[in-house]
Amino acid sequence: MKQTGMFWHVYHNCLVSWCYSYDERKVYILDFKPKDEQELRIKYMQPVKGQLPKKFVEACKAHFKARRACDKAWQAYLENSKTNECEAYNEAYEVYDEAERVYDEAERVYAEEINALHADECPDCSWDGTEIVFE
Question: Is Coiled coil tagged as a keyword (predicted)?
């Protein structure tokens, strides 16, 4: 199984996103998600086979990278409780916030293409437009 890249349904409420490690995410699902959701979550979490718009993929990668930096800065702040660590977190959060805005805009702009590709690659999917439906 491909480990890193653009994947469908890495999260139950996100149609497509950058996956840093398929195996790590699968372990997380098995360890922390409700038992009755695990099979479907893992089934739907698949690499994108077709071509997504380049600008959308770039926005996804930037969003993921900014989120990781923000998480690291927050962890450093919690561990050290120093003023400069708080400032570093605030700066990282500003970058993340902007990356999220760009990602949301790219998702909106390319929604039709993304949804068409999803329909081709995940025809039996229970995605309702906002999240996976677990029944």
Answer: yes
DSSP 123: T
Write the Ramachandran bin of 4: left for phi over 0, alpha for psi from -120 to 50, otherwise beta.
Answer: beta
- At 40-55, the pLDDT tens digits run 999 999 999 999 999 9
Task: Encode pLDDT of 59-85 as tens digits.
Answer: 999 999 999 999 998 888 888 766 667
- pLDDT tens string 2-28: 899 999 999 999 999 999 999 999 999
Do 77 and 97 have their domain in common? yes
Burial class (CB in 10 A: 0-12, 13-18, 19+), 27: exposed
The contacts of residue 33 (CB under 8 Å, 6+ apart) are 41
Q: How many domains does the chain have?
A: 2
The reply to whether 7 and 48 lie within a common domain is yes
The domain of 105 spans 53-109
Look at residues 49, 64, 54, 63 and name the one whose alpha carbon lies nearest to residue 118. 49
- Judge if 98 and 117 occupy the same domain: no
